[in-house]
Amino acid sequence: DAGVTQSPTHLIKTRGQQVTLRCSPKSGHDTVSWYQQALGQGPQFIFQYYEEEERQRGNFPDRFSGHQFPNYSSELNVNALLLGDSALYLCASSLANTDTQYFGPGTRLTVL
Amino acid sequence: QKEVEQNSGPLSVPEGAIASLNCTYSDRVSQSFFWYRQYSGKSPELIMSIYSNGDKEDGRFTAQLNKASQYVSLLIRDSQPSDSATYLCASEANSGYALNFGKGTSLLVTP
């Protein structure tokens, strides 16, 4: 039973560039949530996708956008990268309206 | 602003002792609470969830919830060096929606 997978593992970008991160949920899960974890901080909720729609959004600017595909996989896009966007980006999957969220290994984004 | 507060630590305990990790939350509508363990450079791993006032035990772990005091704790009995990690407390206001995390408490179990 495959767990949550994310790609790429690491990514280095420069300020102003755009980045796309990918997530495949755990088998049987239909809901994907994205979190940003800065060094020394807890994960911060970015948004959640269910039925290919953004269902809930955290306090992040419009530069952060996402998408969910019919196979439940998801993408996180960040435009106009800032140095402060450097963080570990975590994807978590769950079954709709259940509590347990399982995290993927994360993508480490470095913005220079 | 919905806050989940944790002492950042580090909390240092000797091997075999009980480690006690604490968390408070400000949003009274929070219904569900979770403890995640995160090793350095890795992603969070769910240890326990708790929904009702009182204690919930799972192996060496016991979660405690007091909604009146808005307080959640995690006890780790017979602590092992492999328990050394950051422990994240999270709350959830609506089932299946966003998790609100604290900053985490660093635990060091010394041999």
Give me some keywords for this one:
heterodimer; A: 112 residues; mainly beta; seven-stranded mixed beta sheet; four-stranded antiparallel beta sheet; 51% strand; B: 111 residues; six-stranded mixed beta sheet; five-stranded antiparallel beta sheet; 0% helix; globular
Q: What's the main sheet of chain A like?
A: 7 strands, mixed
Largest interface: A-B, 29 and 25 residues
Mean pLDDT over the residues of chain A:
96
End-to-end Cα distance of chain B, whole Å, is: 40 Å
Largest sheet of chain B: 6 strands, mixed
Shape of chain A: globular
Oligomeric state: heterodimer
Strand content of chain A: over 45%
The arrangement of helices and strands of chain A along the chain is EEEEEEEEEEE
Give the helix/strand class of chain A: mainly beta
Low-confidence stretches of chain A: none
Structural class assignment of chain B: mainly beta
Average pLDDT confidence of chain B is 94
Rg of chain B, Å, rounded? 13 Å
Number of DSSP helices of chain B? 0
Helix content of chain A: under 10%
Helix count of chain A equals 0
Concise description?
The complex is a heterodimer of chains A (112) and B (111). With 112 residues, chain A is mainly β.
Structure description:
The complex is a heterodimer of chains A (112) and B (111). Helix content of chain A is 0%, strand content 51%. Chain A has 112 residues and is mainly beta. In chain B, the strands form two sheets. In chain B, strands 2, 4, 5, 9, 10 and 11 form a six-stranded mixed β-sheet that branches. The termini of chain B are far apart. In chain B, a hairpin with a 2-residue loop joins strand 6 and strand 7. Chain A binds chain B through residues 31, 33, 35, 40-45, 48, 55-56, 58, 88, 90, 92, 94-106, and chain B through 4, 8, 32, 34, 36, 42-46, 49, 51, 88, 90, 92, 95-104.
